[in-house]
Design goal:
210 residues; mainly beta; 3-stranded antiparallel beta sheet; two-stranded antiparallel sheet; elongated
């Protein structure tokens, strides 16, 4: 028998044909930041998977059959590993919508500086959703914030504001057919609206004087 429910008795081959039983942590990697499921396995407890928590990042689960297999504050959920495999894993209890709760860093994860990818996601004024990637890591103060800058509508500044892989795209438009719209980012730059060349038909601005 092991001292408490946080430990599990595992029989292991210790070499030379000898077998021994040990009390090991039942959930040794649970909630550790990860990038691959191989990071979520531990000596005697090989059934953890790296689970996608959405924008919050990817964190280790622990194999389970039902909620009783998980520690307090966790539930057994159908999840998908980062490798795309379906799995049943202990995850932090979340809200009524079924979203996962927040993970915290274990002392071991803090000591190792474990990290995960993450994202900042916002809805843009035009109804589209923008996502900027970043990272977050365990440190002395626990799990740090995501380093991703908050995405915003694209403007002419030489920065990929909405994180779509294109810089200054569709950033300048004064809705005037009598001007040529040019983006000139940098010092003293920005959107420039130059009159079209002399002799160019320009009758769609609703002004009879142009």
């Amino acid at each position: 028998a092991c001292p408490d429910a946080a430990q599990i008795c595992k029989t292991m081959d210790i070499g030379a044909g000898d077998i021994a039983s040990y009390c090991l942590p039942r959930w040794p990697r649970l909630c550790d930041p990860c990038e691959a499921s191989a990071q979520c396995t531990a000596l005697g407890v090989p059934d953890g998977a790296c689970v996608d928590h959405g924008a919050a990042g990817t964190f280790c689960g622990a194999g389970c059959g039902d909620d009783s297999d998980c520690p307090t504050g966790f539930r057994c959920a159908q999840a998908t590993s980062v490798e795309g495999a379906p799995t049943s894993e202990c995850v932090p209890e979340g809200d009524e919508a079924g979203l996962y709760g927040a993970c915290t860093c274990s002392p071991a994860a803090q000591a190792e500086g474990l990290a995960t990818s993450c994202a900042a996601v916002v809805a843009l004024p035009d109804g589209a959703t923008a996502t900027c990637p970043g990272t977050r890591a365990c440190g002395e103060a626990g799990l740090g914030p995501c380093s991703a800058p908050p995405p915003s509508a694209e403007v002419c500044d030489g920065v990929d504001n909405d994180c779509d892989g294109q810089t200054d795209n569709l950033a300048c438009d004064d809705d005037n057919v009598c001007t040529t719209d040019i983006c000139k980012p940098g010092a003293g730059g920005g959107c420039v609206f130059e009159p079209v060349s002399a002799g160019t038909p320009c009758t769609e601005d609703g002004n009879a004087c142009t």
